[in-house]
Amino acid sequence: MDTPKVRRTQFLTDRSLQANYVATVLGFMVAVLVLAAVIIYVTGWSHLVERLANVYPQGRLQEVLKIIYLRLLLGFLLLTPLAVFAAILVSHRVAGPLVRIRRYLRLMARGEFDLAPLELRPYDELKDIAQLINEVITQVRAKGGGPRPS
Questions:
Q1: Residues 6+ apart with CB under 8 A from 117
Q2: Which sign does the torsion angle of CA 23, 29, 31, 37 carry?
Q3: Which residues contact 79 (CB under 8 A, 6 or more apart)?
Q4: Angle formed by the axes of helices 15-39 and 58-109, to 10°?
Q5: Fewer CB in a 10 Å sphere around the end CB: N or C, the chain?
Q6: Residue 71 half-sphere exposure, CB side, CA atoms within 13 Å?
Q7: Which residues contact 87 (CB under 8 A, 6 or more apart)?
Q8: Tens-digit pLDDT profile for the chain (150 aa)?
C-alpha cells in the first residue's frame, strides 16, 4: 500500500529562521556584487586608461565602465528574486521539519507518548533527529508509557 505524499502548502513555516537565511543569502550576494564592482574598477579601469588613453577620449572610457556597472547591477537585480526563492525553498527543507519536531517534543514534554512515528518528506533535512525522537517514543512505550502529567 502506498502512503500518500505529504506536501506542505505553506513555504514560510518558520519565518524567523527562513528570514535570517534569506537575509544571509542576500547579504552574500551584495558582498559579491560590491567585490565584483571593485575588482572591475581597480583592474579594468587602470588597464583601460593605460591602454586606450590614446585611442578613446576619457569620457568614452567612463561610459564603457558605466555600461559594465549597469549590466552587473541588472544581473544582480534579475538574480535576486531567484536567489530569494531558492533560499526559501532550501530553508523550507529545514524549517518544515523543525515545526513538526517542536510539536512532537511539546507533546512528549506533556507526557504524551502515544504518537504515530514522526515521518518527514523524502527531501527534508533533520531525518536523524526525527529517527531519534521515534526511538525515544518506542523506548518509553516499552517501559510503560512514560510519565503521566501531575
A1: 134, 137
A2: negative
A3: 29
A4: 160
A5: N
A6: 7
A7: 18, 21, 22, 25, 26
A8: 455 565 667 777 778 888 898 999 999 988 988 898 888 777 777 676 677 767 777 677 778 778 888 898 898 899 999 999 988 888 888 898 999 999 999 999 998 888 899 999 998 999 999 999 999 999 998 887 655 544
Q: Tell me if residue 103 falls in helix, strand or coil.
A: helix
Domain that holds residue 131: 15-142
Write out the three cell numbers for 94: 529545514
Question: Is the residue at 8 inside a domain?
Answer: no
Give the amino acid at 80.
T
Q: pTM above 0.85?
A: no
What is the CA 4 to chain-centroid distance, rounded?
Answer: 27
In a domain, residue 1? The reply is: no
Task: Specify the number of domains making up the chain.
Answer: 1
DSSP state of 11: S
Q: Is residue 3 part of a domain?
A: no
Residue 9 lies in a domain: no
* Cα angle value 120/111/127 (rounded, 5°): 15
